[in-house]
Design a protein that fits this description.
- The chain has 198 residues and is an alpha/beta fold.
- The chain has one domain: 3-Layer(aba) Sandwich (Rossmann fold), CATH 3.40.50.300.
- It has six helices and ten strands; from the N terminus they run βββββαββαβααβαβα.
- Strand 6 and strand 7 form a beta hairpin.
- The protein starts with a strand and ends in a 5-residue tail after the last helix.
- The protein binds guanosine-5'-diphosphate and magnesium ion (MG).
- Guanosine-5'-diphosphate binds next to helix 1.
């Protein structure tokens, strides 16, 4: 009954299409609410781990394979009608650089991630921010990941300052062990559920 997602990859040009109606209990057709969420940041900062953590598909003992192109993770949101967040989990390969603009196109939410262990992943946030068109994204999250690590190159204050300067909402997490995830997920869920776009 639920036919929602068709993903086509035409030689690196990825189209994500939503077939947007389902029948409710009284057999009326109701539109599906669909949110496009971009998960971006440097390689190995934890994009796939965080995406799976949010989607409830993470296994702590699994070794993450490198993401090629883009992976999709679907999150069912609790709402009065079928509501889904599709996380676009971007891989870091150079041949996809030219497509970054298309990836970010029409995103409702952007999640930018860096690793607190790795100074460069923080510096490179400015590069990632260039893809975000302020008028389109309803919310941009800045996620400082790997706070379980004993080594920290970027302080909480530095992360929060950068977030405030760029109008992002800041959370610190360990995607791998789940620290801080609940608070972030609560914010993410209410952003979607309070936003009656469709
Ligand atoms: N210690 C620690 N390692 C993490 C965390 N999140 C991800 N990792 C590890 O970092 C590596 C890269 O993670 P991955 O999710 O593939 O990064 P991506 O390239 O950004 O998608 C993997 O070995 C993960 O297990 C975290 O919160 N803490
Ligand atoms: Mg990945």
């Amino acid at each position: 009954m639920e036919k929602i997602l068709k993903i086509t990859d035409f030689h690196h040009f990825i189209i994500c299409e939503v077939d947007g109606m389902v029948n409710n209990a009284s057999n009326n057709e109701i539109p599906i609410k669909y949110y496009k969420v971009i998960v971006a940041g440097d390689g190995a900062v934890g994009k796939t781990t965080l995406s799976k953590r949010l989607a409830g598909t993470l296994r702590e003992d699994e070794v993450q394979k490198m993401t090629f192109g883009v992976d999709f993770h679907k999150i069912d949101m609790i709402n009065d009608r079928p509501t889904y967040a599709f996380l676009w989990d971007l891989g870091g390969q150079d041949q996809f650089r030219h497509f970054q603009d298309q990836f970010f196109h029409a995103a409702h939410i952007v999640i930018l991630i860096y690793s607190v262990e790795w100074f460069h992943s923080f510096i490179n946030l400015s590069t990632w921010l260039k893809y975000v068109k302020e008028e389109q994204a309803i919310k941009i999250y800045l996620i400082a990941n790997k706070i379980d690590s004993p080594y920290r190159a970027i302080t909480r204050e530095e992360g929060m300052d950068f977030a405030a300067t760029n109008k992002m909402t800041y959370y610190e997490v360990s995607a791998l062990y789940g620290t801080g995830i609940l608070d972030f997920k609560r914010d993410f869920t209410s952003t979607i559920n309070d936003h009656g776009l469709f």
